[in-house]
Amino acid sequence: MDRYRDRTRTLKFDAVFFDSGGTLYGYARGTDPTSAEVADGRFSRLAAAFSAYGHHLDPDLIKTHLIPCEESCIKAFGHGCNFFRMMKVFCEELTPGIKPEIVACLTDAYAGPRYASWLYPGISDTVKALSESGLYIGLIANTYWPGFCMDRALDGVGLLRYFKTRIYSGDVGIAKPDPLIFSLAEDIAGLQGKSILYVGDTLEPDVQGASEVGWKTAFHMRRGFSSDGKADLDYNDAGELLKFCLKNDEH
């Protein structure tokens, strides 16, 4: 315990929370077509999953009913919309009475994978290094992915073990920049009054939202523009983020 305290005294923050898409993951960067294939493949993945549980549905039939279901659920559930709730509605329309355990499996098939190739260069090593330095690492994401899908995807790329607290907007019904979602993270992690850095790629939800509750912020300039001084750090390379977090304020 004494060794842990000695190490943490050299850290600039007590905790670092990350956004997900645009911060950890990119989408179809360069010539990588996988993200588009994942989205377009949801109809065939669902058809295969339904078939495995004895419901034989044509992918075109699924597509015809799924797209308007997606749109209506986003409107109906608002910030509380996630794929699991949407899939419940969809199954009631096409296969009434299907068990929720099966709906969860269908939800995973609908969500599909997130590939390690989507991760920004160096971000895995940075998250690992921050965790091993003694920082508390967490994640707050505005997402329709339910927690069990997000956790499975993070585990698949080797990152889940580092994120001790994970808050997903579709699960809790609160979305950034609402200060309640940042306060919820503090409460769950037991970090009230601690120095926390939030790392994201959007100005209003990420930088403004976290700043308004007293957190420091780092802005990932993936779109090529800066925060114009709104964030405490603007960075392109994950190594810059690592150096910023591990800087000893005593020197």
Features:
251 residues, six-stranded parallel β-sheet, alpha/beta, Rossmann fold, disordered N terminus, 49% helix
Describe this structure in words.
It is a single chain. This protein has two domains: 2-25 and 117-246, Rossmann fold, CATH 3.40.50; 34-111. Helices cover 49% and strands 11% of the residues. It has helices at residues 2-8, 34-40, 42-52, 59-77, 83-94, 100-111, 123-132, 147-156, 169-172, 179-189, 203-212, 238-246, and strands at 15-18, 136-141, 165-168, 196-200, 216-220, 233-235. Strands 3-2-1-4-5-6 form a six-stranded parallel β-sheet, sandwiched between helices. It is elongated.
Structural class: alpha/beta
Mean pLDDT: 92
Largest sheet, in brief, is: 6 strands, parallel
CATH homologous superfamily placement of the largest domain: HAD superfamily/HAD-like
Q: Which percent range fits the helix content?
A: 40-55%
Number of extended strands: 6
Strand/helix succession? HEHHHHHHEHEHHEHEEH
- In CATH, the topology of the largest domain is named Rossmann fold
- Please report the number of helical segments: 12
- Just give the CATH class of the largest domain: Alpha Beta
Shape: elongated
Distance between the termini: 24 Å
CATH architecture of the largest domain: 3-Layer(aba) Sandwich
Which percent range describes the beta-strand content?
5-15%
- Rg value: 20 Å
Q: Provide the domain count.
A: 2
Question: Strand order across the biggest sheet?
Answer: 3-2-1-4-5-6
- Spans of at least 5 consecutive residues whose pLDDT stays below 50 are 1-9
